[in-house]
Amino acid sequence: WRPDDEDDPRRRGASGPVKVRVPAKVNLHLGVGPLRRDGYHELNTVYHAISIHDELTARRGDTLTLTMEGEGAGELALDDSNLVIRAAHALAGYAGVLPHARLHLRKQIPLAGGLAGGSADAAAALVACDTLWGTGLSRDELAGIAADLGSDVPFLIHGGTALGTGRGEAVSPVLARPTSWHWVVALADGGLSTPAAYAELDRLRAAGAAGEPLGSTDALFAALRQRDPRVLAAALGNDLQDAALAMRPSLAATLKAGEAAGALAGIVSGSGPTCVFLALDQADAARIAAELDTAGVCRDARVAHGPVPGARVV
Ligand code: ATP
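That is the input. Now the predicted structure with adenosine-5'-triphosphate docked in place:
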């Protein structure tokens, strides 16, 4: 692509609909450091994109509108508070174009589930509008805009498995063997607020009631370089898990049921309440998901694999 190439679709923009798929994320390691002056915690986290997707379709329009179906439809405001609309405005402002598009969101990622669904939708909106408007930004430029929208948004532009530092917005890919890991994702009824989970962790730490902080990611990186899910299982960890369990004690039964069903490990995803379980292989994941469904310890148990790419035009 050359900047003077008038025929390049990224320069002209798209006339037809642009459809973007974006994955959910789990944190294989979520190390929460001290509270910073700006109100965020210093994070040391390893993000991992899994095959539960939202889909955003962008069409040409005379104004900016958003409609949606699926998870959270009817609960989620579709106005300027929605991360999709905020992302479209942010890109238009950066690129100096009018923020005109008709956007439609098909959501499979639960709301406030600890899977970064809102951040995923923001990443999808950046990629979709960039193509629709022909603004032709690089992934790194999009990730720069993404960082102002939310700590997890830059990762969801890139996908795969990546280290996140700062408040999570500084992302660098993790070099790992090309392996697929198999997960069972246990969705819960209702959500948990991310800020409330961090506040609960601060409270537990102040009271001396939180577990030891996770520390280094070395064991996890070593595990990702091998192909043995048992080794990866032993290296998973989440500093927010105690806080999520304090806020939603029933998650302890979900975690126990997954391990009783043969999962190699189970952790709360991000700030919860979704729990994720690592399985030996795809067949085992399907069997564990069926057992969790039967045990009635979650709203829905889905199988997923990772890593998968970030927000992409399909
Ligand atoms: P994280 O794992 O990043 O903490 P989460 O999965 O717990 O996030 P999200 O679904 O990303 O939670 O959303 C958190 C809140 O963001 C929602 O409760 C909602 O108020 C707001 N929000 C704004 N736009 C969206 C969107 N498009 N999808 C989901 N939530 C959105």
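Residues 9-174 form a domain with the Ribosomal Protein S5; domain 2 fold (CATH 3.30.230.10).
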